[in-house]
Amino acid sequence: MNSLQSLQELDGKPLGHVTLRLFRIGEGRFQQEKHFTLKLAMDEKLSKSPVVEGRYFSGTGYYSPWLEVKYHPVVSFNQTVIDLRPQKLDHQLFSYLSQLLPPGSHMMVTYSNHPETHRQLQRGVPPAATYLGFLLWSVGCTWFKDWYFPEGGWEGNVKLQGNKPPTLQAKQKHFRETKKELEEFLTTHENKMNLKNALERARIVLETIDSSI
Predict the structure, then answer these.
(1) Is the overall model pTM greater than 0.70, yes or no?
(2) Sequence-separated (6 or more) residues with CB below 8 Å from residue 73
(3) pLDDT in tens, 170-186
(4) What is the Cα–Cα distance from 47 to 77, expressed in whole angstroms?
(5) What is the rounded distance in angstroms from the CA atom of residue 165 to the CA atom of residue 208?
């Protein structure tokens, strides 16, 4: 399946009482890359603002697929605003996006419009305990890299990368590394109320790791 066909699979996916719509798709720098925009549809009306703007590379024989997105959790219609987070529709959205990516591939999410994630990464919070990192973790990403380039633009934007492990051995290695990182974070920041959300996410990730190792 090529990049266009893969992206078309997203069109019409349900998100609670709204639906994903592939609003725009354009050519990238090479044949396997596509630019795309996803909006939401409610009562046959499209949202004014996008929920996802991105680039998708479907891979070649040598290069693994990747996905780079700017995700907007709050989407506006003419007289309605929808926030995907309270009902965990954000997790469902990322699950759909993740289906484009096989083991060994990666997803990058811009965090310039996510101040909590931006702030927590700057303070040294483990990526998996941030809002965006937790979303990536929940869809199978087990290794993270923080790309911080303040120049702007696609290549220079601040973004968090999550990699899907290529093998079970790699997954177990990532689990051990993340477990150590999160345990140290919980020990040193246990009573910091301004990190309450990150601490709770860290505990959830640790529980999933402990049940898998």
Answers:
(1) yes
(2) 83, 84, 85, 90
(3) 999 999 999 999 999 99
(4) 5
(5) 16
